[in-house]
Amino acid sequence: MATFPSPPSPSSSSSIPSPRSRMFYYAGSEDHYEEPHFLQACFLCRKPLGQNRDIFMYRGNTPFCSKECRQEQIEIDEAKEKSWKLSSKRGVRQSETNQNSTPNKAVRTGTVAVA
């Protein structure tokens, strides 16, 4: 009969680091841009945030240095969404047109006499 090791006890598991506590960093080429902490710089203009100034948030976790930067990002996002919706509507219309069009069929033309 096969035996399996028992799961580690709570006291022994504390010595094993949790996968969530590990941090991985990319140490690639010198031109690799490292993202700052999300509240250190404006998302749009990259201006430093802090020094007891207001931070304007958008969509949960996107910080901006001013109402103007935030509004510009809102307009950019709305334009992208509108473009996406238009392109998806075009795709739906095109697929409907392709489904409704009759496939190439050979049709005989001529005169039929019925008595």
UniProtKB/TrEMBL annotation:
Zinc fingers, FLZ-type class: 37-81
Ranges annotated as biased composition (Pro residues): 1-10
Xref: Pfam families: zf-FLZ (PF04570)
GO MF annotations, alphabetized: zinc ion binding
Compositional bias annotation for Low complexity: 11-21
Region annotated Disordered, chain positions: 1-21, 86-115
InterPro entries for the chain: FLZ1/2/3 (IPR044533), Zf-FLZ_dom (IPR007650)
Similarity-based family: Belongs to the FLZ family.
The protein, known as: FLZ-type domain-containing protein
